[in-house]
Design goal:
Number of helices: 3
Largest sheet: 3 strands, parallel
Distance between the termini: 44 Å
Shape: elongated
Order of helices and strands: EHEHEH
Helix content: 40-55%
Number of strands: 3
């Protein structure tokens, strides 16, 4: 389905997984089609803190949801902690 000139089983697909429906569906479908799937989630927020709008993307339950999808479809899922880089490089810049 990706249009590469090699078998799906010979192709590794890395999916950025936010924990939402879209990225989880892509990862699951790629795995079902025979691709070697690896899921990656960037942890951007502290799980304990609440945002003004409520739930925050890429923390807490979202990471758990992405991990559960990876387990269900039997592929590796990694979480990289980017809280400091995101806060200092994005949030602080937006507030200034």
């Amino acid at each position: 389905s990706l249009g590469f000139n090699k078998k799906a089983s010979e192709t590794t697909v890395v999916v950025a997984m936010s924990g939402g429906v879209d990225s989880s569906t892509v990862a699951g479908r790629m795995k079902q089609e025979g691709y070697n799937v690896t899921g990656i989630t960037l942890k951007l927020y502290d799980d304990a803190k609440k945002s003004r709008e409520g739930r925050q993307c890429c923390a807490g339950q979202d990471i758990e949801d992405a991990s559960m999808v990876a387990k269900q479809f039997d592929f590796n899922h990694y979480v990289s902690d980017y809280q400091d880089k995101f806060f200092n490089g994005v949030i602080i810049n937006l507030e200034n």
